[in-house]
Amino acid sequence: MDLVDQLKRGLSELSSGFSANVKPAGRSEVMGKSSLVDAAMGTLFSPNVGNMTVGSSENGFSGGVAGSAVGSLISDFRSHSIMQVDSWVNEGENEPITAEEVEKAIGADQLAAIAARTGLSSHAAAAGLARMLPDIIHKLTPGGQIPDDQMLYRAMGHAPITK
Question: What is the spatial distance between Cα 112 and Cα 95, in angstroms, rounded to a whole number?
Answer without folding.
Answer: 24
